[in-house]
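Narrative summary of target 7.
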Amino acid sequence: MASGEILTGNPESSLGKAKRLLEVLSIVLGAIWVFALYFDFRRDQEKLKTEQIRLSNEAQLLSNNQIKEMAHVEQRAKEIALDQQRLSLKQAELLAANERDRARVSLEQQRLSLQTSRLTAEADVEKARLAARIAELDSKLKSSQVAFATQGRISTEVTLQVFCPKHNGPYEAHFEYAVTNSSTTDVELTWTMVHMYLGTVKPVPGKKFATVNNPPVGIFNVKPEGDIEWEELNRTGSILEGRDRLRLALLEAGWMLRRGQGATNILRPGDRGLEREVHLIYGTPDQHIGFSLAFGLDSAIGGDGTYRRSRSQQLANCAKGS
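Modeled conformation, tokenized:
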């Protein structure tokens, strides 16, 4: 009974003990928790310090590397600056040398230009002198050619045949001429002109005879004196192809010349220039038919190198048949 009383007689004492025990336990656990947190804090702090030291070391290493790199960059910049200075000096030297070369080339060009002008002027003077000399020699050569021409370089054949009319028709006149180069050099038959005339004898009171005069050479105003009055019926002229300047000059003088016809040609030694003309003439037996031929060698239009030939016949002396 006594023990039962103890258990039931002191309940508050047991609860108090349990409460105190719980308080002690809570204090102990709290202290343990605090110590645990402290130790975790210290461990984290140590780790943080260690990390800070590592980071500080790395920062120092980076700083050292940066310093080294900056020093290298500065050294390289100095080297580049020196290279640029050397390059600038070299460029300045090259520019100065180029300017000197340009000045030297310009002076040389001026010298050559002056020399070229001088040589050109001398060449022009020499050309003029040679041209004058060539013209002089050409003139002498042409004079010699004309002299040769007058001394037998060519031979000329001129024929006239008149055929009697048939059944009271017209007379038929055949005029032919040939120029032959009988020399050993070329001869240029530059132009030819043929005039055809019909002539009538002038009655002269008390005169028992008549003087027969050849037909005129109208192109040169050559009119032989005599008792026959000549009337020009026709004229034909030719000039060598390519002699247009001479042709224009002759046209201005009233010469009607055809290009490249007739006997005009460059006659080689032994060559022959030939032309034939056939005309129908309405006349009377007492009248005369006449032809005059004029031609020029080597562009001559007067004086030496110019030739004229004439032929005439009375119609009454015509030949039978044609």
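The chain is about 50% helix and 25% strand.
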